[in-house]
Design brief:
Length: 218
């Protein structure tokens, strides 16, 4: 994929709305000669935006366009965009967890056991919920209010960004702990937290793709 010129974008728009349309007709709408349009039409057909059908005219290849977007997005893995995780011990009290939320400037904290394996997730809404009751913030450990395993939705560094993004949308959450899985006792999985995958990571990738050269394509 590459940037289209303004005129090429106009041509794509015209074909999208009026397909099938002949080269002569496009030239007429743009008030240029057919010959002047030839290089643009060649680029647009070669790069898969338009299809030239003999005796019919140009049609818009939405399939090709969407396939190109999918192909680019599918190149990105969670490890390419993830952030550092914010982690606390499950024995920390709720007050300290709230302080961590502010000092680390995050909305979600991952909770780990003594061996540093993931046991839960605690976020802004969980803290707000505790303010509705009479919980002693200094006494009650964060493990009491967290969402705990096995209900925590996670992803792996090698997962595709699109698959992890799907989990965020389907579960209506802000982030996923990025984990490495260790198989302990038979059937028991231990999860080491190696990062955090957030809505901000997705937004940043979106902007990178819009404004920078696509590093994956060189
Ligand atoms: P916020 O509380 O800031 O709205 P979320 O929408 O992410 O943030 O969290 C809403 C609820 O989902 C909370 O109860 C939180 O514990 C839980 N939650 C957050 N992240 C996850 C996750 N990755 N897996 C399972 N539950 C989660």
């Amino acid at each position: 994929m590459f940037d289209l010129s303004q005129r090429q974008e106009r041509i794509v728009e015209i074909v999208r709305k009026q397909e099938p349309i002949t080269g002569e007709k496009i030239a007429e709408i743009l008030k240029v000669t057919r010959a002047a349009l030839r290089p643009d039409l060649a680029i647009l057909t070669m790069s898969g935006y338009l299809e030239a059908k003999p005796r019919v005219g140009y049609t818009y290849k939405s399939e090709g366009f969407h396939n190109a977007i999918r192909r680019i997005l599918n190149q990105y893995r969670v490890k390419d965009v993830k952030s550092m995780p914010v982690v606390i011990s499950e024995t920390s009290n709720i007050y300290d967890a709230i302080v961590t939320l502010f000092t680390e400037d995050t909305g979600t904290i991952y909770v780990v056991d003594d061996d540093n394996y993931l046991t839960g997730v605690v976020s802004r809404k969980d803290f707000l919920k505790t303010t509705l009751g009479r919980t002693d913030l200094f006494k009650v450990p964060v493990s009491v209010i967290m969402t705990r395993m096995p209900n925590v939705v996670t992803c792996n560094p090698e997962d595709k960004v699109v698959d992890a993004a799907k989990k965020i949308v389907n579960h209506e959450i802000d982030s996923l702990p990025v984990v490495k899985v260790f198989v302990g006792d038979p059937g028991e999985e231990k999860l080491e937290v190696v990062g955090r995958f957030t809505k901000t990571n997705i937004t940043r990738l979106f902007l990178d793709l819009a404004y920078k050269n696509n590093k994956k394509e060189g």
